[in-house]
Specification:
The complex is a heterodimer of chains A (287) and B (346). Chain A is mainly α and 287 residues long. Chain A has one domain: ABC transporter involved in vitamin B12 uptake, BtuC (Orthogonal Bundle). In chain A, 71% of the residues lie in helices and 3% in strands. Chain A contains 11 helices and 2 strands; from the N terminus they run ααααββααααααα. Chain A has a two-stranded antiparallel ribbon. Chain A is globular, with a radius of gyration of 19 Å. In chain A, 49% of the residues are buried. With 346 residues, chain B is mainly alpha-helical. Chain B folds into 2 domains: 254 residues, ABC transporter involved in vitamin B12 uptake, BtuC, CATH 1.10.3470; 39 residues, no CATH class. Chain B has 16 helices and 4 strands. In chain B, the strands form 2 sheets. Chain B has a two-stranded antiparallel ribbon. A two-stranded antiparallel sheet of chain B has the order 3-4. In chain B, a hairpin with a 6-residue loop joins strand 3 and strand 4. The chains are: A mainly alpha (287), B mainly alpha (346). At the A-B interface, helix 4, helix 9 and helix 11 of A face helix 6, helix 7, helix 13 and helix 15 of B.
Chain lengths: 287, 346
């Protein structure tokens, strides 16, 4: 039962993160290393607003998501956009940005471990196992977010633009789409997703300024395993790896440090058989 | 006697006409002289130690460039080779009592094997898939190392390694010498036919394949060569610091090497080296404000990147030198006409 709950929670967190990551990669070909750093900032934002300032948890969640999105947009405008043509430069810009955010958080909140109060207290028992309402809430919110993203991508004009840009940048450009603006909007959406993940998962996790590193790696594994740019793939891969981690943690005694490696070994094994990931499309090489 | 004078004159002529005409070549010459002559000026142990670490990381960054800059096989897990080199030579040193001068090359050979193990599955992957997959390998190895504390020392790492020599100057000249030699070797590799093929693979792998070149072989070769140099860097690091710890395999290690290399200018070999020689001492300077150290570092890299997105060295080189439009030979920026073909520059 614990395995099931932890797996579901980890899986849904990874799914949200991975979808945001592959969105911005698909549209702008940016490998955003700082993606999980935004997730960390949002979790700390909630901590700051709800505990230091004593605001309502829901309100502080919205504020911190908005705040993180704002940071994302500013970063895009002033750092990433001027150097968009140079892939390597963008890559290390996001890396240094992640380091920078980590250090800022470290200065503001020190390296102590922090925790956030649950938004809804209490729990109920199923077959002798405690299930906190917070866990249920987290899972529900994640599902709603996933549906919203799917709706956005499939049913709106913006979603159409994003999908066509991901499919073929040049043609989309020729059709009169503003590539830079679309990339900014996508980055905002993706950062907002990361922020949202941090805000929802935050109460279930221990906060520290280095918490972005581990999800970053597993998130990348999810994205690769599911196939770049495939939302369905990211979703399924996230739950595969989420359950793997949960299984390793609960079944191997004192084996918590092995959860990352085992998940990554699974990813590599799958990639050996399907180099384009589970649901990826082997698209023609860009030349 | 006349013959000797002839050769001395010829050497002098080459020096004047080939080295002194280009500022970049003068800088490289000065760099060698300064690095080798530094102990004459100061023998401060702290200073010497920083230069030694800088040269070790310069080897490491240049080896990343050899693989990822030249062949375009983005490797986010370069710490794997460094860590394998460090752990490999540490284990040989501690468990088998082999002296350091032998363990470092042996560690490097283990790193070459690691290069093969990583390289073979990665042949099927391209671009981003490759980058994100390679990130996984050092973490998997880290898990194995922590799971086997008896052999590998677990989370504390392996301590009590022997240094090659205990004397300050001996250490300095050993590390700097190895660095200079390896840097020249890497430069020669990239300047040779093999280097041109590496470059071509990055630009257009399909075209290289169509030209009848075995790209699989060359890609594996790049992985092995890069693993070898990074392994030597790792072995030197382990024996100099007398510890091989899990941090040598960390994600930050992989990321910093990418930052160094791209910041300096990828696909040049000298770019990453220059970047390490600028950024690593800079990190030490920032120890003046210990709590803001990494923040300042990140800020400096970000700001410089905004102005020089192609890399520091490319930017500087374009400022001080111009390429002749007709014969493609580089000239100092102050010249009006090309020094070889007298065509008008700019």
């Amino acid at each position: 039962m614990d395995i099931l709950i932890t797996g579901l929670i980890t899986g849904s967190m990874l799914a949200l993160l991975a979808i945001g990551f592959s969105l911005i990669f698909g549209v702008a070909r940016i490998i955003n290393i700082a993606h999980t750093a935004f997730y960390m900032v949002a979790a700390y934002g909630i901590f700051y607003f709800s505990i230091r300032l004593g605001l309502n948890p829901i309100l502080s969640m919205l504020i911190s998501v908005a705040f993180v999105t704002l940071i994302g947009v500013l970063v895009y405008k002033f750092i990433i956009d001027p150097i968009r043509e140079h892939e390597g430069a963008v890559l290390i810009a996001t890396m240094t940005l992640a380091m920078f955010l980590q250090e800022v958080i470290l200065q503001l909140f020190t390296g102590d471990f922090r925790s956030i109060d649950f938004m809804i207290g209490g729990y109920f028992t199923v077959a002798g196992y405690k299930i906190f309402y917070q866990q249920l809430l987290t899972f529900g919110v994640v599902l709603i977010m996933l549906l919203a993203i799917w709706f956005l991508l499939m049913k709106t004009r913006l979603g159409l633009a994003i999908r066509s840009m991901a499919e073929d940048r040049e043609v989309a450009n020729l059709m009169g789409m503003n590539e830079s603006r679309l990339a900014m909007i996508t980055l905002a959406i993706s950062v907002a997703l990361a922020g949202f993940t941090g805000a929802v998962i935050g109460p279930l996790m221990v906060l520290n300024p280095h918490m972005w590193m581990e999800p970053l790696i597993i998130m990348m594994a999810v994205v690769v395993l599911g196939g770049l740019g495939s939302i369905k793939g990211s979703f399924i891969a996230a739950f595969i790896l989420g359950f793997t981690e949960a299984l390793v943690v609960f079944l191997v005694p004192t084996g918590a440090f092995l959860k990352g490696p085992v998940a990554l070994i699974i990813m590599i094994l799958v990639l050996l058989m399907r180099p384009e990931g589970l649901f990826g499309v082997a698209f023609e090489e860009e030349r | 006697m006349g013959l000797v004078i002839f050769y001395v004159k010829k050497l002098f002529k080459i020096f004047r006409n080939e080295v002194l005409v280009l500022p970049s070549r003068v800088v490289v010459g000065l760099f060698f002289i300064v690095l080798l002559g530094l102990p004459l000026v100061t023998q401060d142990p702290y200073f010497i130690r920083i230069i030694i670490l800088t040269s070790i990381f310069a080897i490491f960054a240049a080896s990343w460039d050899l693989l990822s800059g030249f062949t375009g096989q983005m490797n986010f897990g370069h710490a794997l080779f460094f860590g394998v080199g460090a752990y490999g030579s540490a284990m040989l040193n501690i468990h088998f009592n082999i002296p350091p001068w032998a363990t470092i090359p042996m560690g490097a050979i283990v790193a070459v094997l690691a290069g093969l193990i990583v390289g073979i599955p990665c042949l099927r992957l391209k671009h981003t898939y490759l980058a994100l997959t390679t990130l996984a390998f050092p973490i998997i190895l880290l898990g194995i190392i922590i799971a086997l504390p008896d052999i590998s020392g677990g989370e504390l790492g392996m301590t009590g390694l022997k240094r090659i020599t205990e004397s300050l100057l001996g250490n300095y000249y050993l590390h700097v010498g190895v660095f200079l030699v390896l840097a020249v070797i890497m430069w020669e590799i990239t300047d040779s036919n093999t280097g041109i093929i590496f470059h071509a693979i990055r630009e257009d792998e399909l075209a290289v394949k169509a030209s009848g070149i075995n790209t699989v072989f060359y890609k594996l070769l790049a992985f092995c060569l890069s693993g070898f140099f990074a392994g030597i860097a790792g072995g030197l690091y382990a024996h100099y610091m007398r510890i091989a710890g899990p941090s040598t395999l960390g994600v930050d290690q992989s990321f910093t090497v990418v930052i160094y290399a791209i910041f300096g200018g990828a696909a040049t070999i000298y770019g990453p080296i220059a970047a390490v020689f600028i950024l690593f001492p800079l990190l030490e300077v920032f120890r003046l404000w210990p709590e803001y150290r990494m923040m300042l570092f990140a800020a400096v890299v970000l700001v410089i990147l905004l102005y020089m997105p192609e890399g520091l060295i490319h930017w500087i080189r374009d400022k001080i030198e111009k390429e002749c439009p007709r014969c493609k030979i580089r000239n100092i920026a102050t010249r009006k006409t090309c020094r070889i073909c007298t065509a008008n520059l700019d």
